[in-house]
Amino acid sequence: MFGDALLVARKDLAIEWRSRVITNQIAPFTVLILVLFGFALDADTQTLRDTAPGLFWIAVLLVALLAIQRAVRVETDDGAHHRLLLSSIDPASIFLGKAMALFAQLLALEVLLLVSVLVLFNSSVERPALAICTAVVATAGISSAGTLYGVLAVGSGVRETLLPILLLPVLAPVLISATRAFGDAFDRDDVDGWAWLGMLGVFAVIYTLFGLLAYGALLEDS
After folding, report:
1. Radius of gyration for the alpha carbons in the chain, expressed in angstroms and rounded
2. Measured between alpha carbons, how far is residue 198 from residues 138, 188, 193 in Å?
3. What is the pTM of this model?
4. Which among 18, 63, 93, 134 would be 20 to 30 A from 189, CA to CA?
């Protein structure tokens, strides 16, 4: 299962590496989002520091939507998802591989976002271990949910607008938990960030298990 999943992940990452869409289009968009946030808040340094955790994860969700839509388009434009169904690869492996590829892309973009937040907002991470664990677990949840709901929107002719409507409510608990955990990591909120990280882990496990079980049926219906 994991061997097939790695093959699918390598295929998706190779496509993105050759197309350069992530580096040439989505990465600059990520930085632009933070710059616009700075202008919207009138470049108030204290306000930017206080809201940095929330702004970071809002930017992550916006970028994740672009990355998910990009991954869906790659699979559907030439009917590649039908060929995956005809292969001997188990649908659970396909789901896991695509989620792993999306996870790697989002994590790389989050590194860029975090550096931008630290530089542009003059912020600092007081608890780096908590920040790293939060980013990894939250990204796993976003990747699993995004992969599952991406294939759910494939059969619709309006998937570009349907996907955010379906996905954003599902990711709201991830956004809230990750923001609270990051608030503790940035020392901006008086909360137990590790407890919020535990809640993030629950959501990530639920989304992953549900994806492993339901992805094959959704892929066939698409």
Report:
1. 18
2. 10, 19, 9
3. 0.90
4. 63
